[in-house]
Amino acid sequence: MEFVWIPTGTFWMGSPSSEAGGRSDEALHEVEISSGFWLGRYEVTQGQWEAVMGTRPWSGRDHVVSDLSHPAVSISWNAVQRFIGRLNDAAGDSLYRLPSEAEWEYACRAGSRTRWSFGDDESVLGDYAWYWDNAWDVGEEYAHAVGTKWPNAWGLYDMHGNVYEWVQDWYGSDYYDVSPRVDPRGPSSGSLRVGRGGSFVDGASDLRSADRSGFSPGGRGDDIGVRLLRIYNP
Length: 234
Hints:
Shape: globular
Largest sheet: 4 strands, antiparallel
Distance between the termini: 13 Å
Structural class: alpha+beta
Strand order of the largest sheet: 1-4-10-5
Number of strands: 10
Strand content: 15-25%
Helix content: 10-25%
CATH superfamily: paralog of FGE (formylglycine-generating enzyme)
CATH architecture: Alpha-Beta Complex
Radius of gyration: 16 Å
CATH class: Alpha Beta
CATH topology: paralog of FGE (formylglycine-generating enzyme)
């Protein structure tokens, strides 16, 4: 796996009331990320998942192309924790984890305050993302090989679209109203885990940097994958 260094910093998380497509669970608030980290340049691929787990949970699914370079999908949040556990056992350290929701959005935005990391111009979204308009709606009803669209300003690919990405946090619709300013980690409990970034099934609004979705941690979908965080570079 290839990782990109994400430096410490402060950013505005969520969306302003004026943002087209913004939702009530995206209350704008300032967040500080106090520790830098390494984030996967790409979504975890099928080849990487199979090499670690020896399984192909996407096999036989209707909307999946089986290919080593395509994102691993049909993986639950719970299964991702087992994947991370095996990686950490092999490393002999707690080296890998999921990003928090705040860490994910900070890295996605890459210094931006616009609807998407590249700006507000929806006409160029297809240069950066696989989504409804250039995938599902034209008969390509599946996630595509990782890294085939343009990256954001920090060199991260597919932060918008292709597949949703699990993050560590429980989903809370009003959590932003009470979250700490420094390194928020989500509600202490819940029934849904957060997925970020939108997918090949979704419209442009669902790919916004601020957009949030909640999924059952035991659920699997052809449009849900994962991107890992590495705490340090060994």
